[in-house]
Amino acid sequence: MKSIIYIAFFIFFSSFNIYAQKDSITANTKQLQLKPADYNPLSPSKAAFYSAIFPGAGQIYNNRYWWQLPLIYGGLGISIYSYIDSSNDYDRYRTAFKRRKAGLPDEFTVDGTPIISDAGLESAQRQLSKNRDLSLLSAILVYVLQIVEASVRAHLLQFDTNENLSISPMTIPDYDLVEAPKVGVTLKYSF
C-alpha cells in the first residue's frame, strides 16, 4: 500500500514542467541600496521596552498612536473597572454570607426575611469570582498584546515600501501541449 502511495506522489510531482527565468533585478540594484540610517535593529526592542514600562508608549515611539491609544486605554480601563467592581461585589456577598452563617443580620435581609437565599449568595460569589478572574486575565492580555503590537509595528516600519515594489499577476500559456492548451498563473514581483 505504501509503495502505491509513493509511486502516485512520484508520478504527480514529476508531471510538472519546470521553467527557469532570467534574472531581471541586477539592473536595479543600485537604486535599492539600503542605507544604514534607514534600518535600526534596536527599534523593535525600544518600542517593546517603552510599552512594557508605560502602556501605549511604544505606539507613541512608533508614531502610530492616533487610533491605538484609545483602544489600549479603553481595554485596560474597562478590564480594571470590571475587576474592581466584581471584587467589591464579591466582598459584599461574601460578608453577607459569613454574617448569615454566624446568625447576624446582613444587608440582604429586610425585617428578618432574607431577600437572597444562602444558595443565591454562594452562586453570586462563584459568578463574581469568575468575573473578577476574567477581568484580570483580559487586562493582562491587553497589556501583553500592546507590547507585542509595538514591537511588530517597529519591525514592519523598517520595510521598504516604495512604488517600485509590486506584485502583478500574469498568465503564461503552456506551449508544450498543443492539443490541450493549459494556462497557469504566476505572481511576478519586481524590485
Automatic annotation (TrEMBL):
Any transmembrane segments, and where? 65-84
Q: Does the keyword Transmembrane helix apply?
A: yes
* Signal sequence segment: 1-20
Keywords, alphabetical: Membrane, Signal, Transmembrane, Transmembrane helix
Highest taxon of the lineage = Bacteria
Please list the residue ranges annotated as the DUF5683 domain: 41-191
Q: Does the keyword Signal belong to this entry? A: yes
Q: What is this protein called?
A: DUF5683 domain-containing protein
